[in-house]
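Record filed here:
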Amino acid sequence: MANNNQDINLDLTLTLGSPNQGNAPLDAHAPVDVHAPNDEVNRAPIARRGVNADDAKVCMACGNTNTPLWRKGPNGPQTLCNACGLKHARTLRRAAQ
């Protein structure tokens, strides 16, 4: 095997995101506007979770207003919080047996 003393220049720079435009070096300390529109990507609007004043719900059993899921109760759909809805369903199931 011959020993060649040739210099090899290999660029192993890693970048995230879109490729660098041109051959200008990336400035790691440059400010980035995260709210700038990106014409290449069409993103769906972000779903917002929360309670509006018009949508304020109150559990008919315990009075809770914050729950991950509203369940149906004796007064109709979405009238019980998650915990009370599960308890109500279990009561109905046991009564049917």
Summary: Residues 60 and 75 are 8 Å apart (CA to CA). The chain is about 15% helix and 10% strand. Helices lie at 82-96.
